Amino acid sequence: MDGDHQRDKPSPAELRRSERILRADQIAPRGLTKASAAAYCGCSKDAFNTWVKKGLVPEAIPGTQRWDRKAIDWYLDRASGLPTGEAASSDPLAEWLVSERKAGR
Q1: What pLDDT, on the 0 to 100 scale, is given for residue 103?
Q2: Which of 16, 34, 62, 87 has the most CB atoms around its CB within 10 Å?
Q3: Terminal CA-to-CA distance of the chain, rounded, Å?
Q4: How many CA atoms lie within 13 A of 24 on its CB side?
Q5: CB 82 within 8 A of CB 88
């Protein structure tokens, strides 16, 4: 397990390559290659493969070698404990005010 954790950090060469990939994409594509998806997540391709196996990020779009950027966001939001679905699109301030009122504060 420690080996996986250490490999989550990309090497300097991988970071430079990731930065070049991200800069080259003037229009943020929705369908990402594995290298671009890993760069988007800030990890190496090996770590990205591990994240896919652990369910932290989705599998490739069926029948393709591409990952959906919005699906990656959704998976990472869920893994981070952030609201997904309708709750994610509502007004956070309004949600907080409602929760404060319910708590009697």
Answers
A1: 80
A2: 34
A3: 44
A4: 11
A5: yes
Q: What is the pLDDT of residue 78?
A: 93
How many other CB atoms are found less than 10 A from the CB of residue 75? Answer: 20
What was the pLDDT predicted at 89?
Answer: 55
42 has a pLDDT exceeding 70: yes
Instruction: Please say whether the dihedral angle defined by the alpha carbons of residues 95, 98, 100 and 102, taken in this order, is positive or negative.
Output: negative
80-88 contact pairs (CB < 8 A, 24+): none
Structure tokens at 86: 């309708």
- Structure token digits, residue 35: 């290298």
Dihedral sign, Cα of residue 63, residue 64, residue 66, residue 68:
negative
